[in-house]
TrEMBL record:
One of its GO terms (biological process) is carbohydrate metabolic process. Keywords: Glycosidase, Hydrolase, Membrane, Transmembrane, Transmembrane helix. This is Uncharacterized protein LOC103720757 isoform X1. Residues 76-95 are annotated as: Disordered. Residues 83-95 have a biased composition (Basic residues). CDD domains: GH43_CtGH43-like. InterPro entries: Glyco_hydro_43 (IPR006710), Glyco_hydro_beta-prop_sf (IPR023296). The chain crosses the membrane at residues 30-48. Gene3D superfamilies: Glycosyl hydrolase domain, family 43 (2.115.10.20). It holds the Pfam family Glyco_hydro_43. One of its GO terms (molecular function) is hydrolase activity, hydrolyzing O-glycosyl compounds.
Amino acid sequence: MGETAGSRAVSLNSHPAARTFSGTRCSVSLVLWSLVGCILMVHFYSLIPQKDKGEIRIGSSHLSVTRELEEVEEENLYLPPPRGKRSPRAVKRRGPRKPYSVVDEFLDESSELHALFFPDRKSAIDPNKRGKDSMYYYPGRLWLDTEGNPIQAHGGGILFDWRTETYYWYGENKDGPTYQAHRRAAARIDIIGVSCYSSKDLWEWTNEGIVLSGEGTNATHDLHVSNVLERPKVIYNDKSGQYVMWMHIDDANYTKASAGVAVSDSPTGPFTYLYSMRPHDFESRDMTIFKDDDGKAYLIYSSEDNSELHIGPLTDDYLNVTRVMRRILVGRHREAPALFKYEGTYYMITSGCTGWAPNRALAHAAESIMGPWETMGNPCVGGNKIFRSTTFFAQSTFVVPLPGLPGSFIFMADRWKPAELRDSRYVWLPLTVGGVADEPLEYNFGFPLWSRVSIYWHRRWRFPEEWQRTT
Ligand code: GAL
């Protein structure tokens, strides 16, 4: 760059008009151009990824190592012709049918499209078969643990435990038969419990067993098999030295709408169930917890018939909520919150409320975790329009920061299969924060204040090799 600036300075000087300038003017402009050159060189150098003591530091997530994750990958979706017409008698009995949508097709077990989104075991991700597929994520494929069994950790979340330098993935074990408690109820499985898997690299997972089990005999217990246990999340309390689990506790009709708490001295359990509550005396359904850098933790839950979210700090021991609570995204009907933080700003991905059926995700951001929260639009990039409007046929559950890659995260989502819930799949995709938002924001008079959150569709992807070598 310096050379370019220098040669431009020379050509300026050789211009007939420039030749009339005095020698002093000439050298002033030369000095000025050299200065510009130096500044540009320093600027470009600061953008080049630096390798220092085995750690990758990058100036911006949009450069170098993360570039391959941010490639926009398109998908052509084969849409089968619409289903055959109903008989006039059926129309008379049940009224005209709603047009059959792609989501209906996706949920319909007999459709070709369904099979495409739930490929069979032949294509499973198998850590025992290393080779060319090693370390690759294939969103939607069956994912096996180290013993060769499909991972059962739905609606889950990940804890990185600094003490054991291990990742723990907690989630719903749904490995039971799917049924409906009554004709109009949502598809369900009986509570089996919370599974835990451990990993050093976020790809090869070892089953640590069920760390909190359903209750078989006492019908009044929150964890009685006939109830609902969803979206378990675990954080570590530095003061008490305990691992604290929060989860959604409900009855089969989702009228109990409570949050449950369990604790353990070890990340692999067993967890002791303490109680459930209606936080701040409000309904609580889909929920998550978030531990901030200062050790303060928060509960975020869908409330008031899922029409709004509530957020409030937990007590110092993380075993309860305090009296402080703010209503956020009021009237927006959002659920499945997944919260994360980057460069002092809080971000959240949520879904709409359509039960097991997928819908459009939204990204939100806030300067203060207690709000106000602003909505930034749909973070999904690539695939095609239908993929983007269904969160790649999945629903948010958690966002994992990638250590050493600032601004890069894994977006974890569930591809639910209400016809057979145990066969629901995981959709893990790279999420980055960077650049300015490209959709109009809510309260900012059209001026983009927040960095854009992007979740990139990939049929197959893995962490940049450079990153893998340093972890
Ligand atoms: C979804 C929710 C899931 C589960 C499901 C039941 O809206 O996110 O966790 O509760 O409804 O239909």
